[in-house]
Amino acid sequence: MPLFKDYAKYYQLIYHDKPYKQEAEFVYKWADYPKTILELGCGQGQHAQYWCKKSKIVGIDSSKEMLKNAYQHPNIKYLCSPVEVLEKIKLPIVNCVYAMFNVMGYCLLEQTLPYLPLQSGGCFIFDVWDAPKIHQQPPLPKVKYFPFGYRVAIPDQITKRVLRIDFIIVEQGEIQAFESHYVQGYFRQDIEKLCKLHNYKIIGFKPTDTWTTWYRLEKK
Q1: Are 133 and 211 in contact (CB under 8 A)?
Q2: Nearest to 218 by CA among 208, 203, 198, 197
Q3: Contact of 169 with 151, CB cutoff 8 Å
Q4: pTM of the entire structure?
């Protein structure tokens, strides 16, 4: 089953308390206020809505169900496609590419970085799960409640860097959706090797108190 097929229906309910505006402002400032942006794994445009009045955005997501409910604006263009096939998509050269909410845990860097349509000096900003933290402190099962139901996330550590997370959504006492997601964490040395291989450099690195770490790469 495609990811986020049934899950998409409940996405905004589950993440209604996520600080999208705060995250969007953080990334936009860190990227030096870019005028042209490509968003990988754009979902329903919850971040893009805060930039579209100042910048032109292309958003890519593999889930047509997510894009059906995406935020609309003349400065946003959406494409339904897996991020892993960027080399097959004709895209404009942009100032900035970003991927938020652990998109790069799903769309692997080694399959993505070589094909980003970035101008020289452009930046790629993304957040990933830090593999050492995942290994040292594996995630635990978690329940998140939303109006009329709840979501259960059950993680299973497959390797030092890969987790399988089973998501179960229950509404009014009945299971409405079940999806298994495989998510990869990264070691910093892996990202450094990929940068050398594909002509990038790390110019920003922001760890957090959780498993998430932020990177800003610059295209040479």
Answers
A1: yes
A2: 203
A3: yes
A4: 0.93
